Amino acid sequence: MERVSTLERAIRTVLIVLVLVFFLFPIFWIVLMSFQNNDQILRIPPSILFEPTLANYTTLLTGKLQTTAGNLDIAFLKNLGNSLLLSTGSVILSLILGVPAAYAFARFKFRLGENIAFTLLSFRFAPPLLVLLPLSLYFKQLGLTDSYFGLIWIYQLICLPLILWIVRGYFEDVSPDIEHAYRVAGHSWWTTFRKIAIPLARPGIAAAGLLAFIFAWNNFVFALILASADKQPVTVGALAFVTASGIQYGQIAAAIVLSVMPTLLLALYAQRYLVEGLSLGAVKG
Amino acid sequence: MSLASVSETGSVPIRKRRFARHALPYLLSLPALLVCIGILVPFVTAVYYSLMRFRLNLPAMKGFIWFDNYINFLSDSAFWNTVSVSLTYALVTVVVELVLGLGIALLLVKPTRLNNLASILLLLPLMTAPALAALMWKLMTNPNFGILSYLVSLIGFTDFRWASDPRTALLTVTLVDVWVYTPFIMILLLAGLRSLPKQPFEAAALDGVPRSFVFFRITLPMLMPYIITASLFRLLDSIQQFDIVYSLTQGGPGDTLMVFQVQAYLEFFQYTNVGRSAALMMVLWAITYFLSNIFIKQWLKLRERARGVS
To answer: Which part of the chain is the ABC transmembrane type-1 domain (chain B) (predicted)?
Structure first.
């Protein structure tokens, strides 16, 4: 590699810092806002020096919002719980459905296999409203509007392609010889799958599961159209909260912080896998 | 495990084993197949609705009208507005994100500690729910206290209305989209850059080839498969953008940001015109179907290569 001049290195560092400022500043600023009361927020010029308050968070956690028009009940904790339940449920179902299928696609060449795999992949790229709008009519008829199950089923559109294609890649990377040897030793197919194949692909399964969780958590439009008020996750709940609370900016900021933190922390924890997962394995991380 | 039991397994009737071998993959993928079928039902319904006069508020008028919904689009300025807004949005965001993403990837290509930390931190916007990211930017561009409104007022734009001004609405949503999705392109291209073979660069450095020549004649062509994959991926998502636009402006002000999915959503829930809404989504589906076919071919090629290299 050629020698890099000090000037060039300095310019690079400055540019990197600028990039980081642009991409991290909004998160930083919203976190600051969430510890400010409305007077501090409305102060001009804005300042990063202020006496922090936890009032926004306690309001959200107790669920009682005092406004000039009186007390307002906020269901933000309910939204958080819904997000947790919907995302966890979707990932679990998706793993149960997806891992055996991924194994089948990786190990057996069968006629329907590629067709199913590609149909599922094409769901990832089809406009969601195409199926969501007719589904909203069906959901009413089927009585699924007010159920977690209906949403978890539809969330498979997000989770299943991800799990299928990432886990399939991991199964393909593992040589089938170990499984053959185990089979020849007299073990059933099911034992081999459980004791050999799954443990070997475990990093891939974990990565796919984490990513699927993040995408399910971040989803907005599915729940906006299909979920009743009672079952809404944070993404939809936060928007409703903005409309309802109007000018309680500190609480809005706190609600956003609580809503994005779980996925951000998970992303930092799982960052090794993200590159490969995001591109469905087209690029090795 | 004794030898006897091995030969015992070997003596299972061959026909039975062959059946198990053939049926097993189908059984394993059956649940995934059922989900597929479950989703194809509403898809077919959408096709059917798009050929109907179907308004939720006027059930008596419901009837089959073949392609009238589509034919009406041709002379409908709102439809052409949607097409042009969606295409503009998709092209502007993808081009900006591609240029920025490539620039940042080139900055971070050497795996130093600062660069690795930066590339991890840049994942954070990408992992923020786009709907919530839009709300963050809404707070930052609030005319009364938004930090960005304050900052632009310092350089002379005292009444900059961001998303609520038709002239700057596209700029504002583009900014949010760029904030969320540039890291996506960046990490894909970074992974691509780091996987390029070293020899051509070493040879060029030895020969004293100018760096602009290296970039345009070696780096860029070798990176092209990654650039194409990343851009198509983003283009597919961007032309369907809903979360950011809906959270920020619901398609407004006026019809400035009426992208396909927001228009279809409002058509359905506000104007209860199911037929027109479905036809609109079919047009979008046709566009994405076309793009995704190109994309999947490209993506498979790259996937094969990445798997081969590792």
So the answer is: 83-295
Which residue of chain A is at minimal alpha-carbon distance from B21?
Answer: A108
Of the candidates A215, A211, A217, A209, the one whose C-alpha atom is nearest the C-alpha of residue A82 is: A217
**Total structural domains in chain B?**
1
The amino acid at residue B268 is F
B61 belongs to a structural domain: no
For residue B234, the enclosing domain spans 76-309
Q: How far is A71 from chain B (nearest CA, A)?
A: 23
What does the domain layout of chain A look like in residue ranges?
A: 6-73, 76-278
A2 contact residues in B (CB cutoff 8 A): 205
Residue A186, sorted as left (phi over 0), alpha (psi -120 to 50) or beta, turns out to be left
Q: Are strands A70-73 and A64-67 parallel, antiparallel or unpaired?
A: antiparallel
**pLDDT tens per residue across span B239-259:** 999 999 999 988 888 888 899
Contact between A30 and B307 using a beta-carbon 8 Å cutoff:
no
Cβ under 8 Å to B: A residues 109-148? 110, 112-113, 116, 118-123, 125-138
Q: Within an 8 Å CB–CB cutoff, is residue A190 touching chain B? A: no
* Total-model pTM: 0.89
| CATH number of B142's domain | 1.10.3720.10
- A147: its two tokens: 């159920």
Which residue from B minimizes the CA distance to A282?
B303
> What superfamily would CATH give domain A76-278?
MetI-like (1.10.3720.10)
Q: What's the complex ipTM?
A: 0.90
| Residue B246 included in any domain | yes
